[in-house]
# Entry
Amino acid sequence: MRLLLFGPPGVGKGTQAKLLSEDYHIPHISTGDLLRAAADKRTELGKRAKAIMEAGQLVPDDVMNGIVREALSSKKVASGFLLDGFPRTLPQAKALAKIFGDLKIVKYWVLNLSLDDEEIIRRLGNRVVCRKEGRIFSMEEDGVTFASPCPVCGGELYQRDDDKPDTVRKRLQVYAVQTAPVIEFYRGAGVVVDVDGANSIDVVHREIRLLLGDLDTR
# Structure
């Protein structure tokens, strides 16, 4: 099973990625983890990426493409993978197509999770984080407020700037501009699987499994 995972912030990608990784016994490859691992291993690409990140700059495509190529060439992904956070732009998607061609990766699916913008803003607006341990809670589902202590450790709860409505709207605009051409690129290849992210975690997960099961019989 080879999967590329797409979806706007707040749609539940991280949760579904963890579940799918466990279901299919495949590694969840996120770009953030890839960059940290490359930096820790001190590969040539890793050293370049680390210097760029420490300077507060975005890692350029040639470095990111090389790091992704290295990851997909590893024996760890021989039975499949779930790639999350790459490609973000059309040039990256075209570079990944070349990587797939070079590595003889033919069969793969693009999971495209979607959710109404206003629902995303509402969901993220309900999210609070434990300042001490980083656990995430929903004010709506977990019955906490900004004034509540963390239900687990008693630490302070707060709302991240990234989850505030104005910031979320900007993040959604950037995602739409960058990602729409990428989704259309894959839609043209006939590999996009559209998933409605409006339902509960369990329902969305079950729908993904059913859709992938149907596709796997082709």
Observations:
- The longest helix spans residues 165-188.
- Residues 127 and 138 are 5 Å apart (CA to CA).
